[in-house]
């Protein structure tokens, strides 16, 4: 048997920082897609309150006008762009507006999204393709536009893609959404490595939200008899906005919003078959409101803008006050404590399985 010489020198690659020096939020121009409701709306309000210049983009022009007027009446700086992120030319229109209005932009947040509730074999291919236009292709177009801008100006900028716990582990009923978010996660991880290798001036962050209390359920296309809604434990949109805005100022690879999201990923990795059974049991009853009939398909936001200016949805779960995992991402000591706690949970589940 061949022996490896003990004196062989093994050189490990030196990990060079991609870049340094993301601006303080008060000095930034931040682009936010899906800004007319939910997480995007909360993020726009929080960013403007902290001094950032906001470029809000969505399909609902009336809601965007109201948002910008609201912010400007508070002495804050904001502009809007009516845009469908599934159209590449609309993404360019967003970037052009930011550059024409403010000379540049410093953070680009790919947040726009819409879901489909229904069994995989029942969902039409046209609906699936349309949803991918928004959830996946919108992120691709936005990422390319933002990276091109940051490279051309040579100053560090932040690209923040909003994923999902269902992008880390599949689910029932929302199979199309999970598939699109899996694609978003794969795209984000891949471009991060490429950009890091070439030392491009771009910080790439993937946000992993758990189930969030937004109008997401109301905007979704439903094939079900009962109204889509989050049940069980859900998190406030402010927790996602906090993660996004922290990533705009600090280089973060990933931020999980809610231990729910991290545990879901961990379980799926360590105990895939057990997780299958948990999902099959838990996710059917906790994705609908059994007391309401589902809205007609034409009222969904799949093909046109949904209603705007609502931060919260009509969900039926227990809404947490915030997210410990987001706090942990901002505090190394707290982060270690949370990691130990999640590890202990996983170990306990492993022992039970044995």
From TrEMBL:
Membrane-spanning parts: 333-350
UniProt keyword annotation of Cytoplasm present: no
CDD domains: SDR_c3
Any single Pfam family the record assigns to this protein: adh_short
GO CC, any one term: membrane
Keyword flag Transmembrane helix: yes
PROSITE patterns found in the cross-reference section: ADH_SHORT
Entry GO MF terms: oxidoreductase activity
Key words of the record: Membrane, Oxidoreductase, Transmembrane, Transmembrane helix
Family according to the record: Belongs to the short-chain dehydrogenases/reductases (SDR) family.
Name by which UniProt lists this protein: SDR family NAD(P)-dependent oxidoreductase
Species name: Salinibacillus xinjiangensis
